[in-house]
Design goal:
With 381 residues, the chain is an alpha/beta fold. 46% of the residues lie in helices and 15% in strands. Strands 3-2-1-4-5-6-7 form a seven-stranded parallel sheet, sandwiched between helices. The chain has a six-stranded parallel sheet with strand order 10-9-8-11-12-13, sandwiched between helices. α2 links the parallel β2 and β3. α1 packs across α7, α3 crosses α4 and α9 runs parallel beside α14. The longest helix is centred in the N-terminal third of the chain and has 19 residues. The chain is globular. 47% of the residues are buried. GO terms for molecular function: UDP-N-acetylglucosamine 2-epimerase activity. Belongs to the UDP-N-acetylglucosamine 2-epimerase family. It holds the Pfam family Epimerase_2. This is UDP-N-acetylglucosamine 2-epimerase (non-hydrolyzing). Keywords: Isomerase.
Length: 381
C-alpha cells in the first residue's frame, strides 16, 4: 500500500477559508496525500459560512473567538492550542495562508515542533510594519518561519528573494482566491435575500458601487472622509447607488450610520456569505474597498477597484491598471469616484486590464508540488 503523508491545513478566518478551500479540495484528490484541517475560528460565524459553502468539516476546531479578544490573548491561545494539535497529529507538512494571527501562531507552533511549513500567498509586502496592522508583520514573521513559499505572483517572489529566501523554496502559483471565485460566480445565480432582490430591482439600469471597509488603520476620521466622498458623488451622479455590507465592528457601524445612514440610494446591509457576495460583486459597476482579497477578486470579474488605503501589498494590480490606490482623504477619494463614474475611457481601461493574479489553477500547482515533495522528487530547502 502506498504511504500516505498527512498535510495539515490551518486557518481561522473567512478569507483564509475561501482561499484554502480549493487547496483542500486538490489535496484530497491527490494520491498519497491525507489532508487534515485545523481551524482556530478566530472569526467564528463568518468562518462557518465558508466551511458550509465548500463542505469542509474540520478535524480540529479550537473555537478560540472571544468577545473583545486582544491580539496578544488570541496569539497565545492559538499557539497553545495548535501546539497540542501538532503534537498529536505529527503532520508531514503544515500549510498556512496569508497574514492572520492564526497564520503566524501556526507557523511558530510548527517551528517549535520541527514540522515544515508551507506558506500559501507568500511574499506580499507594503514595507510599512503598521500598514496593514497587524497583517504586514504576521506575513513577514510567517515568511521567516516557512520552509516552502507559494508566491501568487513574480512580484511576491521577488520580495522574498530580496529578503534572502532560498530561491528553490519559492514557487509562483497564482492566487488560490481566483480558483475559489471562478467556482462560485454564476451568471444565473439567484439571491435568496429578498432585501437584495429589492435593491437590485430598484437599481436596475443604474450603476452599483459596492463598498466594504474594515481596516483598523481606517477607523474614525479616515472612514468619515471616505463616506463623505461617497455622499458627494451620489449627488453628482443620480444613476449611481451604493450597496454596503457593513462590517460587524461596532466602531465601523457607528461611523457608517453617522455619515451614510438614511440616505437615498445608500443601502446598508448585513455582511454577506461568500457566495452571494461574490455574485453581487459580479453585478457591481466597481468596488470601493480597503480589503486585500477583493483587490484580486474583482479584477477577475472585470470590475475596477478603488482601494481606500495609503499602501497596498498587492502592487501588481495597481501596475496592471485594474486597481487604483485612492487613499482616505476626501478630495482624493472623490476624484477617483468621479473619474470612474464620469470618464468612460478611464473606466473601460481599468475594467479591461489583464488580471495579474492567475488562471484558476493555483491550488492544483500547490498540490502537485506537495506530492512531489512528499516523494523526494523536490529537494527540501
Amino acid at each position: 500500500m502506498e504511504q500516505e503523508y498527512n498535510v495539515m491545513v490551518v486557518f481561522g478566518t473567512r478569507p483564509e477559508a475561501i482561499k484554502m478551500a480549493p487547496v483542500i479540495k486538490e489535496l484530497r484528490m491527490t494520491p498519497g496525500i491525507h489532508c487534515t484541517v485545523a481551524v482556530t475560528a478566530q472569526h467564528r460565524e463568518m468562518l462557518d459560512q465558508v466551511l458550509n459553502l465548500f463542505g469542509i468539516m474540520p478535524d480540529y476546531d479550537l473555537n478560540l473567538m472571544r468577545r473583545g479578544q486582544t491580539l496578544p490573548d488570541l496569539t497565545c491561545r492559538a499557539l497553545n492550542g495548535l501546539s497540542e494539535v501538532f503534537r498529536k497529529e505529527k503532520p508531514f507538512l503544515i500549510l498556512v495562508h496569508g497574514d492572520t494571527t492564526t497564520t503566524f501562531a501556526a507557523a511558530l507552533a510548527a517551528f517549535y515542533a520541527r514540522i515544515p511549513v508551507g506558506h500559501v500567498e507568500a511574499g506580499l509586502r507594503t514595507g510599512d510594519k503598521y500598514s496593514p496592522y497587524p497583517e504586514e508583520i504576521n506575513r513577514k514573521l510567517t515568511g521567516a518561519l516557512a520552509d516552502v513559499h507559494y508566491a501568487p505572483t513574480p512580484t511576491a517572489r521577488a520580495n522574498l528573494l530580496r529578503e534572502g529566501v532560498e530561491p528553490r523554496s519559492v514557487l509562483v502559483t497564482g492566487n488560490t482566491v481566483i480558483d475559489a471565485l471562478l467556482a462560485t460566480v454564476r451568471p444565473d445565480y439567484r439571491f435568496e435575500s429578498e432585501e437584495l432582490q429589492r435593491i437590485l430591482r430598484a437599481g436596475s439600469g443604474g450603476r452599483m458601487i459596492l463598498v466594504t471597509t474594515h481596516r483598523r488603520e481606517n477607523l474614525g476620521e479616515p472612514m468619515r472622509e471616505i463616506y463623505r466622498a461617497l455622499v458627494q458623488v451620489l449627488v453628482e451622479f443620480p444613476d449611481a447607488y451604493v450597496v454596503f455590507p457593513v462590517h460587524r465592528n461596532p466602531e465601523v457601524r457607528k461611523t457608517v450610520r453617522s455619515v451614510l445612514g438614511d440616505l437615498p440610494r445608500v443601502h446598508l446591509i448585513e455582511p454577506l456569505d461568500y457566495e452571494p457576495f461574490a455574485n453581487l460583486m459580479a453585478r457591481a459597476h466597481f468596488v470601493l474597498t480597503d480589503s486585500g482579497g477583493i483587490q484580486e477578486e474583482a479584477p477577475s470579474l472585470g470590475k475596477p477597484v478603488l482601494v481606500v488605503r495609503d499602501t497596498t501589498e498587492r502592487p501588481e494590480a495597481v501596475a496592471a491598471g485594474t486597481v487604483a490606490l485612492a487613499g482616505t482623504e476626501y478630495e482624493r477619494v472623490l476624484w477617483h469616484l468621479r473619474r470612474l463614474l464620469g470618464d468612460k475611457a478611464a473606466y473601460e481601461g481599468m475594467a479591461r486590464a489583464a488580471n495579474p493574479y492567475g488562471d484558476g489553477r493555483a491550488a492544483r500547482r500547490i498540490a502537485e508540488h506537495i506530492r512531489k515533495r512528499s516523494r523526494g522528487l523536490i529537494e527540501s530547502s
